[in-house]
Amino acid sequence: MEGYVAVTDPDWWKRLSRDPGPKDANFWRPSARPRRLAIGTPFFFKLKAPYRKIAGFGYFAGFSVLPDWLAWDSFKLANGVASLKELRTRLQKIQLGARIEADPGGHIGCCLIAESIFFAESDWVDPPEGWSPRTQSGAGIDLSRGDGARIWRECLERVASAAAVVRERGERYGEPVLHRPRLGQAIFRIRVLDSYDRACAVTTEHSLPVLDAAHIKPFAEGGAHDVTNGLALRTDLHRLFDRGYVTVDEDDRFVVGKRLREEFENGKTYYALQGTKLVLPSAPDLLPSSAALAWHRSEVFVG
Q1: pTM
Q2: What is the DSSP letter of 303?
Q3: Which of 3, 26, 13 is nearest to 183 (CA)?
Q4: What is the crossing angle of helices 68-75 and 185-195, to 10°?
Q5: Which has more pLDDT, 48 or 165?
Q6: How many Å apart are CA 28 and CA 36, to the nearest integer?
Q7: Do 25 and 62 touch, CB atoms closer than 8 A?
Q8: In the chain, ranges of CATH 2.30.130.30 domains
Q9: Residue 68 has pLDDT above 70, yes or no
Q10: Which residues pair with 214 in a beta bridge?
Q11: Multiple choice CATH, 2-169, 3.30.360.10, 2.40.50.320, 2.30.130.30, 3.40.50.300
């Protein structure tokens, strides 16, 4: 199995290591060029000089080009900065130092890293032997042999007490296998919006500031942060969906309950959407769960 050793700024690690995880993290960069890795690829955080050590790892859960405000709004401190202003300041410094032209819309490339764990300095892991200090962008590494196997083993040793990691892998240091990462709220939001081409499934509204990633079955009720448990909805439709005034039928059509009119003597804007066929992801593995939608109709929808 391949892993990826990414090079990062020590300040990014320092901010994120205040909560060692596991958690979602945004490994951002000014370039919008996609990072082509398989979902579940182990993603190691190697600090730049003067440290040059591996200070944590997580699992690659996708790549997305995001407006900087959406990256901040979704990940907050998991961007490794204290504010949107600081994120923009760091981007400007990187762009100036590397002579990278700033995106006029403020878009950045985001590697979405799930189950990220950050080590204390005493637990840092040595990088691959002979790794050039001039390497700035990272590189793939074979985890089944040599230095790659050592790094993988040592990183797992650092988290051997984490029950979730041990449970996922069975034997403690077995043969490396591709891992399906558990997503947190931040990555769930981005993955759902991207799966629906950043458009409301009902209205096809594309204005990103008014779009939400709605859980079909809430996390508090046992629903997963999984794309199949999500819908991209306009903010007002999301609130109506969560409160049970609207739902989705067995044929993936939008349903507006009579209670909306009865309780508020209005709702004509929403009744005009009655029966609208949802625009869903084209990939079968991203389609909303029929079981989750049935749960919403029986447990949440007020009719």
Answers
A1: 0.87
A2: -
A3: 26
A4: 140
A5: 48
A6: 14
A7: no
A8: 2-169
A9: yes
A10: 231
A11: 2.30.130.30
